[in-house]
Amino acid sequence: MHRDIKPQNLFFNLTNGSMKIVDWGLAEFYHCGKPYNTKVAARFYKAPELLLGNEFYNYTIDIWAIGCIFAAVLFQEEIVFRGKDNLDQMGAIARVVGTDELYEYINTAKLKKNTAMLKQIGRHAKKPWNKFKAVFNESYFTPDSIDLLSKMLSVDPGKRIMAKDALSHPYFKDLS
């Protein structure tokens, strides 16, 4: 697990079209059932399970971060989920993905409910991705891009797309 995927840690070679992930200082090998420190990842790319204090996370935290970057590219925004602190960050996520999936994940994962945090977040309906569509970015909104984005930004890491499946997603069919 890289645990700090963010745009600053992605280097692109425009000559040959390659990309490298750098700064592996927070990386860990994943071992099922092992607890990990949740104080990793840059706030704007931090997966919900980290914000909720779930120490039993896996490599799908990196998929969430990539999904945040992908959303920023699609929406032509610098940052999609912009929180002032971790609590506000969870609220920023909840205002877009909705709280139904969030509460379902908390219950399924049997996480300790932080009632103060949940009260502050409130209740929110899922915001359709097309709410982010504008004249300047509508060409990026394809059924395949939205499907991939939805699968990357699933609040429940167990429902989040795996890297191998993401790479074989129809969104990438014309890129090879």
Give a written overview of the molecule.
It is a single chain. By secondary structure, the chain is mainly alpha-helical. α2 (60-75) packs antiparallel against α6. A hairpin with a 4-residue loop joins β1 and β2. It has helices at residues 48-51, 60-75, 86-97, 100-108, 115-121, 143-152, 163-167; strands at residues 10-13, 18-21. Strands 1-2 form a two-stranded antiparallel ribbon. It has a single domain (7-175), classed as Transferase(Phosphotransferase) domain 1 (Transferase(Phosphotransferase), domain 1). The radius of gyration is 16 Å and the shape is globular.
What's the overall average pLDDT, rounded? 95
Order of helices and strands: EEHHHHHHH
Helix content: 25-40%
State the distance separating the first and last CA atoms. 26 Å
Strand content: under 5%
Largest sheet: 2 strands, antiparallel
CATH level-3 fold name: Transferase(Phosphotransferase), domain 1
| The top level CATH class name | Mainly Alpha
What general outline do the C-alpha atoms trace? Answer: globular
CATH architecture verdict: Orthogonal Bundle
Which residues form runs of ≥5 with pLDDT under 50? none
Q: What is the tally of helical segments? A: 7
Biggest sheet: strand arrangement: 1-2
Structural class: mainly alpha
Based on DSSP secondary structure assignment, what is the total number of beta strands?
Answer: 2
CATH homologous superfamily annotation: Transferase(Phosphotransferase) domain 1
Report the radius of gyration as a whole number of Å: 16 Å
Number of domains: 1
